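At this stage, I wrote out one protein's amino acid sequence and its backbone structure tokens, and that material follows here:
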Amino acid sequence: MPKGSGITGDDLPKVTWINKHAGICCGFTIRVLPRRVGKKRYQIMKDGDSFGIDFALSEARRTIDRIINNNHFIVH
């Protein structure tokens, strides 16, 4: 699984952007949902199932990492 996000140097999964509205991250689709200017939301989907909406891209990447590595959607 590719790690890193370029400039930030973290170890979260990398997002490959298809266009300005959607990207792929470890088989999950991250959609940028429209909102007010400067406030984006990121919807996580895979195989037609939604895994929620995060308010920051780093949160969405962290959620995907948590699902893959711990097989958990929610932190216990």
Residues 1-7 have pLDDT under 50 and may be disordered. The radius of gyration is 12 Å. The longest strand covers residues 28-33. The beta strands are 16-19, 22-25, 28-33, 41-46, 49-54.
